[in-house]
Batch of 2 targets.
Target 1
Amino acid sequence: MEHVLLEIDGLQIEAKPGESVLEAALNHSIFIPHLCHEEGHQEPFGGCRLCFVEIQGKATPVTSCTQPVKPGMIVRTNTDTVRRLQRSALRLILSNHRVDCVGCFAHKRCRLQELARALGVGLKVSGLKDLSLQESIDSSLGKVLYDRSKCVLCGKCVSWARTNKTGVFQFVGRGLATRIGLFPFEGDQEILEGSWDVCPVGALFPADAAKVKQAPSSDSPHDP
């Protein structure tokens, strides 16, 4: 199979035909912020709007997960314009996320914490309306609980449900009313145990998870 040659941040790399710019970058350890991408799962979603890059010849930045690699493509991942768009996207996501790191199931492995560090954004945003909800736990699936107030609609659980042919997680509603709907599952309940691992923000967690309150660690990202 012939490889596609392209340039990312001045580095000449090889990519497989059909790969996205995001996949090609990640395969060569080039950092591009992303949240909704899940390797091997779904068609590009582009929902988080974090993976912006500039591509020579395109008038405006584009989401790298939706751009297939092309021979001779020249990509920039860290320009001032790109970083500004990425930070704005992350701040918007955080405005919809109830920040409660201590005791959260995803604490210290939370993708939002990692992105906040990388982009220099405080977890508690200012200058934007706080759209987060109060804690709202859906326990209808039994083994796995869903806290809508932490969900950022990345779609990873929906993709997981499709891959595992369960249909338990689906997008419902439109526009600002979009949310994740939980639907009954009559199959082997053990399969649900893998669902919380795919959630990057702790909105899904096991019903028997111990909520141990911990003192904030020195490496936790807080407002500057």
Target 2
Amino acid sequence: MDTPQKGQLPAASLKPPHQRRKILAFLPQLAPPAPSYSVRDFILMGSDEPLRWRAESSALQRADEALQATDLHPLADRSCDRLSGGEYRRTLLAATLAQGASVLLLDEPCAGLDLPHAALVMDHLNNWLQGQRERRALVAMHDLNLASQFCDRVFLLGQNQLMGQDTPHRVLTPELLDRAFGPGLSCFEHPVSGQRVILAKVAR
């Protein structure tokens, strides 16, 4: 982990690494090559427990919860190298959840997922966050509608600068979206949920 240019990030200085793993878990945007392990075994490797011939009950429980959260139970015994791109992406997220860290750093966790599974992942991520008060997640994503629907706070980046930070309703506004991305987007309130919906303006 890089040294922060400003502010403090105490967890980054924790050594040995297994201490840091109990606090921080990171899901990169670029996935490593899929191994030949089963989905369940790969997720168990995300546990913060030391590797043993027999997994601890706490690690098994976290792996099972991660399988449930990512809708992977039907694929638990399949080899990772036989998964589709979206299925493998969910497996990587499940391994990150199974680590048991209190802070998640997720770079495009829904990349490669269809809308139902992307919504499922974000919904279960919110449920995971509500499970314990000390849990936090910082998520980098390009899907503004998923951010509007599931995030309680949004940091809008555009033109190499921070355009705004607040609730989705206060940040995902026509004015800030124009500043961040230009005049190519429109937004409106969903008639049922009241959430902000963002669409691209397409010339016909």
